[in-house]
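Re-run with default settings, no changes from the original entry. Doing this only to confirm the output is reproducible before filing.
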Amino acid sequence: MAEPENDHTVTRLVDLADRMRRSWDARSDFHYVDTRQRTWETDAFYASGRAEASMLLPPAFKRLGFDSAGKRILEIGCGPGRLFPGHAEHFSEVWGIDVSPEMVRLGEELCPVEARFILGSGYDLREVEDDSIDYCFSYLVFHHLPYEDVAWAYFKEILRVLRPGMCFQVQLLGRRSLRARAARVLGSRVPGDARTWIGATIPALRAEREVSALGFSRVLTYPISASAYWLVGARPMSGGSA
């Protein structure tokens, strides 16, 4: 992991991580993980994640030419592991990392499939070894990051932890929908720091350019909705393209 450039950067990142940790601990109610329902029964919550993951993963696999059999997935911002039952249908090992101790506690207590939960720093993947992951995945997480440069810092880390030739799939927000703009206005009503709920938007072309410049190959985007999109790509094989 590259060290932050200076003391100001360190202070800023530590402050952000502290705000995100406290904010997402305060949002550990399942509603803030999946806002489609006000209240969730545990079984229904994880069943919805199983169905959603099984819908989200295969189109990316097809675009990337990725075979998940026998592989390890790392979900960045996994929360209590809502999507883990779906991940477990495709991967042999399911790992997740989250900034919130309370989310990690809930996942370890309630998640119905075997998985490894990791408490993260909130701005990097220092807890994950180099060349140890086959697929990095993140959904409904990066658009909560208040600053765009934190996203690029995470992508540098994704490049580090992926094995050569392995892939990533990250959802980003390109512009705000009417619903998202309303959420921005009402952000102060969500527990915690509103900036860690509202987050930043990143146009797809800029995202492609930035992650390609970091050294990823097979980089492309495709839409999820009018406002959100998937960014996918691969770490190149050593000495050549992926």
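The CA atoms of residues 152 and 210 lie 7 Å apart. DSSP finds nine helices and seven strands in the chain.
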